[in-house]
Amino acid sequence: MAIDNQTAFLKLLRWCEHYPHEPSEANYKTMYGGGTFESFDDHPRKYVTKWGKTSSSSGAYQINIKTYDDFKERLGLKDFTPESQDKIALAIIKQAGAVSLIDEGKIEDAIKKLTGRWSSLPGGIHSRIQMNAALAKFTEYQKG
Questions:
Q1: Measured between alpha carbons, how far is 37 from 135 in angstroms, rounded to an integer?
Q2: Which of 3, 54, 67, 106 is deepest in the core (most CB within 10 A)?
Q3: Percent helix, strand, coil in the chain (nearest 5)?
Q4: How far apart are the first and last CA of the chain?
Q5: Which residues of 17-37 are buried (b: 16+ CB within 10 A; e: fewer)?
Q6: Given its phi and psi angles, is residue 107 left (phi above 0), alpha (psi -120 to 50 degrees) or beta?
Q7: Distance CA 88, CA 109 (A)
Q8: 19 in Cβ contact with 2 (< 8 Å)
Q9: What is the percent of the chain where pLDDT is above 90?
Q10: Quick check: helix, strand or coil at residue 77?
Q11: How far is the C-alpha of 110 from the C-alpha of 89, rounded, in Å?
Q12: d(CA 5, CA 22)
């Protein structure tokens, strides 16, 4: 069963963030560096140092504390559940001006617009994925 472009793009983004693993519910509990957190009540609010960098990024889209607090207030969120994480990711995508590109099927353009925010996307400084592989994954996810 086909899914809409925004849902397929979020799944693609989770795949890029957690590559080489396929998106799963576990992605929503992943912390920077590979650990996990237990409760969706709030952002885990932990800083992890790994690979010479310290980060509070957590969840499926590796959202840091500052970003979470900002969007939690703006979007009226009460928790860090998968639904809240998806809403934050979409809000970031909208803020970057990439939602219309995704809706129009201009996925390569959307990816290029978002690599500054998610460096795991093709073209990003931490990406291990080629653009053609990402576009193929998007099409696979879109088909359901």
A1: 31
A2: 67
A3: 50, 10, 40
A4: 5
A5: bbbeeebeeebbbbbbeeeeb
A6: alpha
A7: 20
A8: no
A9: 97
A10: coil
A11: 13
A12: 18
Q: Domains, the chain, ranges and CATH?
A: 5-143 (1.10.530.10)
For residue 15, what are the contacts with CB-CB under 8 A and spacing of at least 6?
21, 22, 23, 137, 141
Token look-up 């201009």 returns: 106
17 noted as active-site residue: yes
Query: What's 30's DSSP letter?
Result: B
Token couple for 19:
């590559």
pLDDT cut 70: percent of the chain above it = 99
Q: Could you tell me if residue 34 is left (phi over 0), alpha (psi between -120 and 50 degrees) or otherwise beta?
A: left
Quickly list H helices, the chain. 5-17, 65-75, 82-95, 99-103, 107-114, 131-143
Q: What is the pTM of this model?
A: 0.95
